[in-house]
């Protein structure tokens, strides 16, 4: 399951999460973001030890600025409280899985 | 549920047509995207002397022969323009604007266009440089955006960005009427360089220097890497093996987009191989 978070709920959600985290930055009208979401939903179903959050950049400009998101979709990968990778643009399931395996 | 094609072919030059003909003969459910000219390069060729069986033929005559062949087999070209191909794992999604088409396999036969990059364009890609203004617009709320536009159709994108950004500079790379309103700053100038530290800060034009947070390049042609995220290319040519397989499972490429020699008969041959490889791939998935 992908959990939607915003500027207000972001900090608490991240701090309380012990699994590997993927934060998906997207917007409602962005076509590549919609495709990315389908891939992330598959990953969410298959990887119990990965937590996926989604952020609407329009709704939550503070987190988007904090992570310096310049283009969407962007996926920020966080492990043990540190940013370990960032993926800009649509990426295939295989590509995301490789990143997950590198960081689990 | 959306119908899913066996093969989606992108491009209606000799490679794409040859792929379509083989897909048709093998009774696959396919869709081919292109235009009614089939191929501008073919249409404009004054003389072709090395296309087997058609000595001293003009490009226009050969194009008409191709059309006859398509008509006999009942193949029609879909003229929607594909903007992106998404690898979804077991299938592909071809996007043309808001419309999405699902295919089990894809053959790229998009031809080749020499694309010139502006100094700094590749360096700042994803760090203020982008190709989809409507996608990234929300990131530029109350910021300055510069749009380098190669077609008046993109004026709509500029208007959309203007609703969100503080200021929009519009640098048309074409001449004529510009369908943007007075709230957008039009600059008839030549882009030279994009500069900045960690992200875009300035767009240098021949006669102006613009302070800008983002630069969108809205081009007519799309490079393979931008069309198919994750595809492997060298010098903007798609890397293929002798079966026309790309690095993405189920995605094949044929014709000029795979690199020189840029010859019609080579393209047609590769289209044939790509189609047969796609059919083999489909059989392996059953």
Q: Helices and strands in order, then pairings?
A:
The complex is a heterodimer of chains A (104) and B (286).
Chain A: E1 2-4, H1 10-15, E2 20-26, H2 31-46, E3 50-56, H3 61-66, E4 74-79, E5 82-88, H4 93-103
Parallel strand pairs in A: 1-3, 2-3
Antiparallel strand pairs in A: 2-4, 4-5
Chain B: E1 4-10, H1 14-25, E2 30-33, H2 40-44, H3 59-73, E3 84-87, E4 92-96, E5 99-108, E6 129-130, H4 133-136, E7 144-149, H5 155-162, E8 167-172, E9 185-186, E10 191-196, E11 200-205, E12 209-211, E13 214-218, H6 224-227, E14 233-234, E15 237-238, E16 251-253, H7 264-285
Q: Could you characterize the architecture of this molecule?
A:
The complex is a heterodimer of chains A (104) and B (286). Chain A is α/β, with parallel strands linked by helices and 104 residues long. Chain A is built from four helices and five strands; from the N terminus they run βαβαβαββα. Chain A has a five-stranded mixed β-sheet with strand order 1-3-2-4-5. In chain A, helix 2 links the parallel strand 2 (20-26) and strand 3 (50-56). The radius of gyration of chain A is 12 Å and the shape is globular. The model of chain A has no long low-confidence stretch (mean pLDDT 93). Chain B has helices spanning 14-25, 40-44, 59-73, 133-136, 155-162, 224-227, 264-285, and strands at 4-10, 30-33, 84-87, 92-96, 99-108, 129-130, 144-149, 167-172, 185-186, 191-196, 200-205, 209-211, 214-218, 233-234, 237-238, 251-253. In chain B, strand 14 (233-234) and strand 15 form a beta hairpin. In chain B, helix 1 (14-25) packs parallel to helix 3 and helix 1 (14-25) packs across helix 7 (264-285). The two termini of chain B are 20 Å apart.
